[in-house]
Write a structure and sequence with these properties.
Elements lengths: L7 E5 L1 H9 L5 E5 L3 H6 L6 E2 L17 E5 L6 H12 L4 E5 L2 H7 L5 E4 L2 E4 L1
Parallel strand pairs: 1-5, 2-3, 2-4, 4-5
Antiparallel strand pairs: 6-7
Length: 123
């Protein structure tokens, strides 16, 4: 990551996140801002639900330079910006919002995971 862009919130489309899932360097986490029910129904593989969660639990304590992809329901989901600003306040180095959210991810036909009876399974 280029330190020149530390503290900046970027926006991208599902194809970029899909590419990054195949090439996970530099390290990143995908944070899903939707409700737990929506998350259980289907989410980006490896995503972490942050609905009702203190972001301190997902933010690296060791101060590592990790990138965060933040995803919500769809375009203009206000929760995405709330989580992004919280991460920025906590000192995140790079935050990337998925502009179309899960709506665009699913529309593009990308793989999702779902949870049934507490067990993750490919959709």
């Amino acid at each position: 990551m280029d330190p020149q862009f530390d503290g900046v919130i970027f926006q991208t489309h599902p194809a970029e996140l899909h590419r990054r899932l195949r090439y996970p360097f530099p390290p990143f986490k995908v944070l899903d801002t939707r409700s737990r029910d929506e998350f259980r129904h289907g989410h980006v593989p490896g995503a972490i639900s942050v609905a009702g969660v203190d972001l301190a639990t997902v933010f690296p304590q060791e101060g590592g330079r990790i990138e965060f992809f933040v995803i919500g329901k769809g375009p203009l989901d206000p929760r995405v910006r709330e989580v992004s600003l919280d991460l920025l306040h906590r000192g995140a180095h790079r935050i990337v919002e998925l502009t179309g959210g899960m709506f665009e991810w699913e529309r593009a036909g990308y793989e999702t995971e779902s949870e049934r009876a507490g067990t993750p399974a490919a959709a």
